[in-house]
Design brief:
By secondary structure, the chain is of the alpha/beta class. The chain has 12 helices and 8 strands. The chain has a single domain, classed as Aldolase class I (TIM Barrel, Alpha-Beta Barrel). Keywords: Lyase.
């Protein structure tokens, strides 16, 4: 399926049963809610998807099941976050066979590679597949910054098309646009900077709280792109306390609690993650409960 790097793309959570197995039934409920709300693609197996706890067979099952479930309605993007280049290449080659329409690439895991090593890592994966690729640029969490000079080299690979911009420096969007124009599509990867990013010309939003609030997330995107900024701001201000749950080490537990509150998920996580406890659980639940109780009435954003 043709991949366009724009719109809202949920970094979906991986649903588990109480026994720790994949819960494809609840996963399907959530994916259907995302598509009904108007998302542009589904991103599987990222940090929010607890990728580090998934084996390759489970990744295969998730991609194949998602491709079957979406049935051409939206593309499926598979995340790759590996220690070894050889393993990343194998996953990239298998992803297309499994039904993925695009890839999101993280830099090498558990090793702070040099700029040269990072570029060569990405190039090796890109040259092994014809799937379009989005580079995940997140120096806060992964300690590696993909610079403009590095992107200039990477764009020699025809299938490197986009960046998930998570530097948390809003001006970096304009730097990328000034340097590359439309050669590199820009998608915001930080929920609390999403509207600001869209208003300075980001093409899309790789979102987290969309997992629990898909309609509100897509409405913010659509209104912003339609120039209805005041309406977008109004929803975004309601949304902000919830969006801040995404910029937290326990983002998976936080967002899964929100999915429970909106009826499209469960709380189950895989060890070493554990459900929130004590006062932190109470704090997060209060934010979620307040958000659900005051959900805004949305305009007919799907027609925009």
């Amino acid at each position: 399926m043709y991949m366009e790097w724009n719109g809202v793309m949920p970094a979906v959570t991986t649903k588990f049963t109480n026994e720790g197995e994949l819960d494809l039934k609840m996963f399907a409920i959530n994916i259907d809610a995302q598509i009904e709300a108007g998302v542009s693609a589904i991103v599987l197996g990222g940090s929010l998807g607890e990728a580090s706890t998934l084996n390759n067979l489970e990744k295969q099952r998730l991609v194949e099941y998602s491709a079957s479930l979406t049935n051409g309605r939206v593309p499926v993007v598979m995340n790759i976050a590996e220690r070894a280049t050889s393993e990343a290449i194998k996953l990239a080659q298998n992803a297309k066979k499994w039904g993925a329409s695009g890839l999101m690439l993280l830099p090498p895991m558990q090793y702070k590679a040099t700029d040269y090593e990072v570029v060569e890592y990405f190039k090796a994966i890109a040259s092994s597949t014809d799937l379009p690729i989005m580079i995940y640029n997140n120096p806060i969490d992964y300690k590696i910054l993909v610079t403009l000079n590095m992107f200039e080299e990477l764009l020699s690979c025809d299938n490197i098309k986009a960046v998930k911009e998570s530097t948390r420096d809003i001006s970096n969007i304009s730097r990328i646009r000034n340097a590359f124009g439309d050669r590199l599509k820009i998608l915001c990867g930080v929920d609390t900077l999403a509207l600001e990013s869209l208003l300075v010309d980001a093409d899309g939003w790789i979102a987290g709280l969309v997992c629990a609030f898909p309609e509100e997330t897509v409405a913010v995107y659509k209104l912003a792109k339609a120039g209805r900024v005041e309406e977008a701001i109004s929803i975004y201000r309601w949304f902000l306390p919830l969006l801040e749950l995404d910029i937290n080490p326990q983002l998976v537990q936080n967002i899964k609690l929100a999915e429970v509150a909106t009826g499209i998920g469960t709380e189950y996580v895989r060890l070493p993650r554990m459900p929130l406890q004590g006062k932190e659980r109470e704090r997060v639940l209060k934010i979620i409960e307040d958000g659900v109780a005051t959900r805004p009435v949305l305009p007919d954003y799907k027609q925009l």
